């Protein structure tokens, strides 16, 4: 048995349900393998299919952090995974409320935790930053490849519907503008198996991290940009200027997309995050 398998066997993982506004949400608690360092991480996952493809990477990192003495709480927003609710009823604000309930669960059930940190991936990172004033955490923020411009992001997401049309019909029968018009007329638009409505579309269009007024004066913030070079993307550069965050680069593939390689771990991303966390002690 190799060291990795031995470590996995030593990890205590507990499935639980907790409530938010009468809806049961599903979570997994990863308890510290060694002596607790008094800190917890709440993981905030990404959007739609990005959550599916990134799932294993987040699980692996939760286990790594548990090896380092952190308590880690992963959970599904309402409408995802084993949580109750429907995806079509979710908005950016409902996700923020779900994160707040997850933070409260940790506070109430793990009295040995003195500091709660947040790790968000893609839209999960955007949720962390845009909802920070409501989340009431006293630790650091780790933002993995955050979505800065929600309108640009959701319009890009709609392109998957056009790709499906090409595969099924051999042509694009409804343009992106037509799909948006349908939602505005009260219809649902299916993208990669997920139904979108006008409220969801408008919610994401209203997201712009450069306009968020969050109090970061006493918080440590890390942005990890997935990139093969150390060139900062334009939107990330603007976010850095606004937040005074630290930035690290991770030479990884975009594992939150459907790619040929099966991504079990993102070791470059883990390493830069671990190094930064070590410097925060």
Features:
10 helices; disordered N terminus; alpha/beta; globular; 20% strand; 281 residues; two-stranded antiparallel sheet; 10 strands; 42% helix
What's this entry about, in short?
With 281 residues, the chain is α/β, with parallel strands linked by helices. 42% of the residues lie in helices and 20% in strands. Helix 2 links the parallel strand 3 and strand 4 (71-75).
Any overview of this molecule?
With 281 residues, the protein is an alpha/beta fold. The protein has ten helices and ten strands. A hairpin with a 2-residue loop joins strand 7 and strand 8. Helix 6 crosses helix 8 (198-205). The two termini are 33 Å apart. Mean pLDDT is 91; it is low at 1-8.
Alpha carbon gyration radius? 19 Å
- Sheet with most strands: strand arrangement: 1-2-4-3-5-6-9-10
Strand runs, count = 10
Number of helices: 10
Which descriptor suits the 3D outline? globular
Distance between the termini: 33 Å
Mean pLDDT: 91
Q: List unreliable stretches of 5+ residues.
A: 1-8
Strand fraction band? 15-25%
* Main β-sheet description: 8 strands, mixed
Give the helix level as a range of percent.
40-55%
Order of helices and strands: HEEEHEHEHHEHHEEHEHEH
Helix-strand category: alpha/beta
